[in-house]
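ping. complex inputs:
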Amino acid sequence: MSEIPVLKGNTKKQRYESLVAALYQDVFRYAFWICKSKPMAEDLVQETFLRAWRSLESLQNDKAAKAWLFTILRRENARQYERYRPELIDIDGQSIAESVNNEPDNKMDRELLHNAINRLESEYREPLLLQVVGGFSGKEIAEILELNNNTVMTRLFRARGKLKSEFGLSTEIDE
Amino acid sequence: MDELEFRKRVYANPRDLDDDILEAARANPELQKIADETLAFEDSLVPLIESTEAPEGLLTQLLSIPEKDELASETAASTSSNVSPIRARKQSFFQYYAVAASLVLAVGILFSFSVNGGPSSADIVFGNELLAHLHHDIEEIDDITNGATYEILDLDEVNFSMANAGTRLVSYGPAQEFEVRSAKPCEILPAYKSAHLVLEGSHGAVSVIVINNSPVDVEFNIRDDRFNGIVVPMEQGNMILVGEKNEDLNQFASMFSGNVEWVI
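pong. complex structure:
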């Protein structure tokens, strides 16, 4: 189960501010990994929170806030970038450079892993990111992606299997 | 529990293993190895994904959305009933500082051929978007390259489109020199305004695009199988010149460099 933000305050603006403070890092992280670009992720996050602000009254249950935001973001990403999706590029360690543990050998592995995640097909990358970034359960991911739970679990299995196979670790993802 | 079933359940959620999985691992060293290996891999994967931090300033921008949105609504209501809410919002939200005045600033094009480094990753993504946009408009570019009859536009017509990106041509020099065949607002990056002129060059159509996003760090080239281009940073945005591979774009750059003004 994902962590539950507490939307404090009595006014709409106070509730919005607590929503931003609690979740903007996770929302940005998710945006970055699905669109592979920090400038695009920043635009996406701004658009997501603008839409959230405008429809905050429709959020009836604070426990669903993170899933709600991630769903808005996914739709916005599809709407904005479905026509002009750039080709995959190496991101020059944009996120890697910010890591605390950044020793040279480790950095090389991290870059390989970074690129391996980016190469994952979106059907595998998305549930993986929802699980790792969002902390969502299989059931929650199934609801966000509008899939059944078994499909989600299979995709998570395959996502990790594909990543591990890139590093020469044993997998049996074809079964 | 067989190995495949074990792998499926461990891979699907390595951080939350059920008791029967743990028990199976304890009873079978091979399965234990799979579980250990998967958890070790997870120890690399999760910190990498979580290491991405939001840019400095994003929090402030997000917190200011309510005020900007309210201002945008008021502006839209007071200016024109024909302005759609989305368009009005984008004008105010992303160009908040542009609505107040009509101060005209001359722009000097920054020919910064830096030797210290190439374009940033963000600039490369931007370059990809520009090329994608050209291919979106490929029909018109092909028409002009192939000599289809397009009316030559006058300065007012050109500036009508360039105003979309907050720019204008100061003089008609460049347009007269190269004959602007098409000028229209376009959308390259969401939330940023841009205009796309198509001129007739020596080897086919030449696109001149102005966009009011952040200036790129250094001037850099873009290319694909067909086109070559230059992205030139300006004070308030970027100017991009793109032509067929053998087109000399420098003449266009120098021609336009002194003739584009940014209006804020």
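Helices of chain A lie at 12-35, 38-54, 65-81, 104-119, 122-132, 138-145, 149-166.
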